[in-house]
Amino acid sequence: MYNNSNLHLILGGARSGKSRLAQQRAEQWLQSNNAGGLSYLATATAGDEEMSSRIARHQGDRGQHWQTIEEPIALAEALDASPKSHCVLVDCLTLWLSNCIHEGVWAREREALMQRVDQRRNNSENNAAPWIFVSNEVGSGIVPLGQLSREFVDAAGWLHQALAERADSVTLAIAGLPLTVK
C-alpha cells in the first residue's frame, strides 16, 4: 500500500519482485493523487540480446501513462530534470553503480546523488512527488574472491545504507512479498 512518504528504497535479490512492487506503489500514488504523472528512470543499457529482451519486457509491463527516461550514469542530473509533479521510479541502482564503476565516475556520481537527496529533504519538498529507488541486495551472499567484485559489493552496501538512512521507507522484497524494514 502506498503511503505519503517522499523517498522509498526497495531492495531485494534477483527475481524477488522488487521492480513489480515499485511499479505498483508508483501507480497507487498516481491513483490516490489524481494529479502528476509517472516517470521510469532506467539505468540499464542493452549490451546484448538478452538484456534487450529484459528491457523490452519491463517496458511492456508498464502502461502508456509512464514516461521513460534512460540515464545510465548521471542519475542526480536526471532526477533534477524529471518533472516535479511525477513520481520517479529509479530502476535499478546496482546497474547504475556498475555503469559508474565501469566508467570510473562512481565517487563523483554517488556524491552527486547523495547531495541531491539531501537537498530535496533539507528543502522540505514534502509536497513533491515521491522518488522510488530499486536496488539489488547483494550483501547476503558469500564474499566475492575478486577485487572488482568486492569493490562492487562494498559500494552497493554503502550506497544502500546511505539511502536507507535518508529514506522515509525501506522495503525488502522476498519471493514477491514486501517486508517493511523502515
UniProtKB/TrEMBL annotation:
Which residue ranges traverse the bilayer? none
Concerning InterPro entries, the annotation shows:
CobU/CobP, P-loop_NTPase
In alphabetical order, the GO MF annotations are: adenosylcobinamide kinase activity; cobinamide phosphate guanylyltransferase activity
**EC number(s) stated in the UniProt entry for this protein:** 2.7.1.156, 2.7.7.62
Q: Does the keyword Nucleotide-binding apply?
A: yes
Substrates-to-products reaction catalysed: adenosylcob(III)inamide phosphate + GTP + H(+) = adenosylcob(III)inamide-GDP + diphosphate; adenosylcob(III)inamide + GTP = adenosylcob(III)inamide phosphate + GDP + H(+); adenosylcob(III)inamide + ATP = adenosylcob(III)inamide phosphate + ADP + H(+)
Query: Per UniProt, which keywords does this protein have?
Result: ATP-binding, Cobalamin biosynthesis, GTP-binding, Kinase, Nucleotide-binding, Nucleotidyltransferase, Transferase
Please give the function described in this protein's UniProt entry.
Catalyzes ATP-dependent phosphorylation of adenosylcobinamide and addition of GMP to adenosylcobinamide phosphate.
To which protein family does this belong? Belongs to the CobU/CobP family.
Q: Which NCBIfam families match?
A: PRK05800.1 (NF004469)
Question: What is the name listed in the Swiss-Prot or TrEMBL entry for this protein?
Answer: Bifunctional adenosylcobalamin biosynthesis protein
Organism of this sequence: Microbulbifer epialgicus
Taxonomically, what lineage is the organism? Bacteria, Pseudomonadati, Pseudomonadota, Gammaproteobacteria, Cellvibrionales
